[in-house]
Specification:
alpha+beta, Cathepsin D, subunit A, domain 1, 2 domains, 16-stranded mixed β-sheet, 5-stranded mixed β-sheet, binds 2-acetamido-2-deoxy-beta-D-glucopyranose, aspartic-type endopeptidase activity, protease, Peptidase_aspartic_dom_sf
């Protein structure tokens, strides 16, 4: 029985993408994008116009499930539909990596069942009439690999290998098939339209990916590289390179939309240019109204430093120089607490009253006067009726490569509308009710539509209870020893 928490790092940092690095990518756009036309004749006309001008900018809605609680699912996923006839796949939504991949037929060490209450499906290119292999001489492959592959012969597949920050990895080959997307066509309404997309067909997994506890069909990378689904859609003029998520930390699931987000209004901070991830500049950390006195180089940017926004990471990782004083400051208010460690990773304590009354809020300050407030009930997670653990982690402990980056995952991103405006190279957020709606604009017709929340799958899963029981047992055992 695998009792590790499904926690941490999720798909976090993309360290290496051998055959799919961010080279000079050029996309061949062979198929025209066609919607299942149920549009009014006017909007049909406008979209025809837009098509003639090479742009057909609409809004797309993704259905979300999962939650950010480390003792439950510990990740957010989306349902996507691929192939002809279409089949559903459940993929982790990860703004920290750059390709979509799903487990494929013939895979060695792929999970066959999941404890997340979803049915896993292996993709088989032979069973989809629209599916095709991507060979190493095709543009997608040569451009992701910065030029022709040295040993490429006709009919050889275009291979990829992705290693994630938590030590897990996936490899396989690229295929191209119809991906069916929910185009927003009215208030809380959408219609399916398909588009040929290149994605990874995973045939070898290692690390966390082959365990069933939080198993999914794959990962949907929402990174900036040209290989991402977002970039492929944007390159062919289907969407603007703008998307937003609202991860519901209270109920699970949430809102995910691609396109012009009109409401809520979001204040932004610039993205650090030329970074493989969504890096922003942090300026200060405030705990309960006091700004922490930190060495100034803590907020430097670059490959060894910096602050990354990553929906594929469950918790939040801070450099030791930030983590230590932050935790000390938080605990200053509760000197009588007896701390103990769970799973060699989590700092926990018993507490019966409201944590929001007892602990201070943490506020991160970013360039452009953007702030991000994290409430105690968000940075603490409950493992039993009377026990809580800190979600804050020291990145020094986590990274084997000595990098001291700040990694802001679901722990701090949930209960906010987080906007990634790649057209303007900015990212922003605002506190928001993730079970309400946001307003998007169909840029082709100018129409404004409300997009609502989803919560697919069951969040009270078997594994959640199993982990919880284990934690409980473990925690009380430890506690008894103290
Ligand atoms: C991505 O594609 C765009 C437009 O097709 C191109 O201008 C850009 O150089 C590409 N970027 C990378 C990193 O390959
Ligand atoms: C994909 O879209 C085309 C054009 O609208 C349509 O003819 C086809 O049936 C769609 N494929 C599926 C599997 O829905
Ligand atoms: C698909 O068909 C090809 C050719 O018949 C075969 O070589 C390949 O193994 C099949 N792939 C899968 C996943 O079944
Ligand atoms: C959030 O929105 C939902 C749906 O509109 C509503 O039922 C709920 O009361 C709202 N929650 C809060 C805290 O305002």
């Amino acid at each position: 029985m695998d009792l590790r928490l499904s926690v941490v790092v999720g798909a976090a940092i993309l360290l290496r993408l051998v055959s799919g690095s961010s080279g000079n990518l050029v996309f061949e756009v062979q198929n025209k994008f066609k919607f299942n036309g149920r549009d009014s004749s006017l909007s049909e006309l406008r979209s025809h116009d837009a098509r003639r001008h090479g742009r057909l900018l609409s809004a797309i809605n993704l259905q979300l499930g999962g939650n950010g609680n480390p003792s439950e699912t510990g990740l957010y996923f989306a349902r996507i539909s691929i192939g002809t006839p279409p089949k559903d796949y459940y993929v982790q939504v990860d703004t920290g990596s750059d390709i979509l991949w799903v487990n494929c037929a013939g895979c060695s060490k792929c999970p066959v069942k999941s404890d997340l209450g979803i049915k896993l499906t292996l993709y088989n290119v032979n069973e989809s009439s629209t599916g095709d292999m991507v060979t190493c001489d095709q543009d997608f492959c040569t451009s992701t690999d910065n030029g022709p592959l040295p040993n490429c012969k006709p009919n050889l597949l275009c291979q990829y290998n992705v290693a994630y920050g938590d030590g897990s990895s996936t490899s396989g080959y690229f295929v191209k098939d119809s991906v069916h997307l929910d185009r927003v066509t009215g208030n809380l309404q959408s219609s399916t339209s398909n588009r040929s997309i290149v994605f990874g067909c995973g045939n070898k997994q290692s690390g966390e990916f082959d365990s069933s506890s939080a198993a999914l069909d794959g990962i949907l990378g929402f990174g900036q590289a040209n290989s991402s689904v977002l970039s492929q859609l944007a390159t062919s003029g289907i969407v603007k390179k703008i998307f937003a998520h609202c991860l519901d930390g209270k109920k699970g699931g949430g809102i995910f939309a691609i396109g012009d987000i009109m409401q809520p209004e979001v204040k932004t901070t610039p993205l650090v240019p030329n970074q493989p991830h969504y890096n922003v500049v942090m300026k200060a950390v405030e705990v309960g109204g006091d700004v922490l006195q930190l060495p100034t180089d803590v907020f430097d940017t670059g490959t060894q430093r910096g602050t990354i926004i990553d929906s594929g990471t469950t918790l939040a990782y801070l450099p030791e120089e930030v983590y230590d004083p932050m935790l000390k400051k938080i605990l200053d208010k509760q000197p009588q607490l007896k701390l103990y460690t769970v799973e060699e990773q989590f700092t926990c304590f018993k507490y019966l009253e409201s944590v929001d009354d007892a602990f201070p809020e943490v506020t991160f300050h970013f360039e452009g006067s953007l702030t991000m407030k994290v409430y105690p009930h968000e940075y603490l997670f409950k493992i039993s009726e009377d026990a809580w653990c800190f979600g804050w982690q020291s990145s020094g402990l986590q990274s084997k490569d000595g990098k001291d980056t700040t990694l802001l995952g679901d722990l701090v991103l949930s209960n906010k509308l987080v906007l990634y405006d790649l057209e303007n190279q900015a990212i922003g957020w605002t506190e928001y009710n993730c079970s309400s709606t946001i307003t998007v604009k169909d840029s082709t017709t100018g129409a404004m539509y409300r997009v609502g929340a989803y919560d697919i799958g069951s969040t009270s899963t078997l594994i959640a209870r199993r982990i919880l029981m284990f934690l409980l047992l473990f925690a009380s055992m430890l506690h008894a020893l103290l």
